[in-house]
Amino acid sequence: MLRTLPQWVLNGSRHPGTLRHMTGSRSKWQELEALHNMSVETFREQAFIPSVPTLMPGRFAEELLALNKWFVSDGADKEHYALNYSYLSRFGRAIVPLEFTRLLQTEAGTTFVRSEAPLEVFLEWSKQAKADTPERLYLAQASFTDLPTELKADLPTPEIVAKAGKGDIYDTNLWIGVPPTYTPLHRDPNPNLFIQLAGKKNVRLLDPEAGLEIFARVQAALGKSGSPAFRGEEMMQGEEKALLESHVWDNAQLSHGQASWGFEAYLERGDGLFIPKGWWHSIKGVGEGITGSVSL
Fold first, then answer.
1. Distance (Å, rounded) from C-alpha 26 to C-alpha 69?
2. Coil, strand, or helix at residue 185?
3. What is the C-alpha separation between 48 and 43, in angstroms, rounded?
4. Among 195, 153, 189, which Cα is nearest to 173's?
5. What pTM did the predictor assign?
């Protein structure tokens, strides 16, 4: 049986320090209210056990060494970050997964290829990349287990992850790119703590039932009957990518009832977002400079 939202959310009332209802033309989405200075016990009782998506601003700014070792402030603007090439270039031969996208000004839309390459390939590309660069690389879903030992040490397990539940971690993945970046609507088989290491990201979440409804609508429009548990490159290109993006990010679509309950979070450096098991989410990297994230 799919888990539903607590009654206080469905009623639109405010739970102390959890969710705030949004009004206006974007009423289908609700903004996650920030929970500041959250203790492990508070996280366990208000987020982890009841499976409530939760935003924790700045909670991990000092806990993860990678924030300061992998990224540096980009000039005078402290909101923009660049990669710390002098440090990361030491690991240039490490093999990482890269998503290659070529933006085409034709009906074909985009070309998408996922492959593996030395980290130095991504580092060199990122030095010149801008928002309008047509040929793009995204270091996406790089497994923690495949990283060099020294880089692993820069990403210690956060206290909340170690103590809130059993302390087990299904997987840890790394994401680094130059905005705009995009991850289509999907769901994970386990709870997920998503931490922003640098730059900014916009996350939209849907509860299990609402997300499944959108997935079913897209599959029906494509004349398919795919399984939501097995998602591949088909959601990264072509008509399926376009339909998924439209259903989640096009507010005109939402106004016609495609999504009954949606939540939105804006993440900056050091922010954490708890995504409960089975919750659907889509993520966009926004702004300037480098954006980096880790999911545990």
1. 38
2. strand
3. 6
4. 195
5. 0.85
